[in-house]
Amino acid sequence: MVKRGLIPSAPGTTAVYDNAAYILAAAAAAKAAGKPLDEHLASALFGPLGLPEGSWDWWKDAAGTRYGHAGLVLTADGLLAFGRLWLDGGWRGTERVLSEAFVAEATKTQNPADPTFGLGWLLLGRDVRGKAPWDGFWMNGTDGQVLYVHPPSGLVCVQLVERSLAPDEQRPFVGVVLDQCRKLARALTPR
Description:
By secondary structure, the protein is α+β, with helices and mostly antiparallel strands. The chain is 35% helix and 16% strand. Strands 7-8-9-10 form a four-stranded antiparallel sheet, with helices on both faces. Strands 1-2 form a two-stranded antiparallel ribbon.
């Protein structure tokens, strides 16, 4: 969903965000799993989430390799299940799908110079229109699709879109959705 990745920086330098990091991470994960990444995730992630084959798709490059940085297509139910997995700290019911350490690392600031980015998540930073920070984390994808997770309220917001949006249309579109999610999260958060 998110089209940015973190490239670790040398001490004293600033990290750079780029798709290349996700592409390299996907290749490394496939090599470690000993099979194509989509096959590994079908059994290690999508199966435990209850997503049957055919309920998700992932774009491939010309060589038939799944993109590591974009093109994962889920139904609204699938995206909601993925968001719930993160809301529940990596648990799906009684099964741990993601390690506690991975969830903690992915949802914390990765670059002190820019606290907006976790690992694949946008978090605790300013939203797409520069509004003040809030708690929770989110991803946006092609054409303004959004997944927002707000642990204090137990809220997961999902937005899918029916038509392609030009890049200049996506930012305000996502901003409106995030505003609505944040209002609902505030209303649901115990005081």
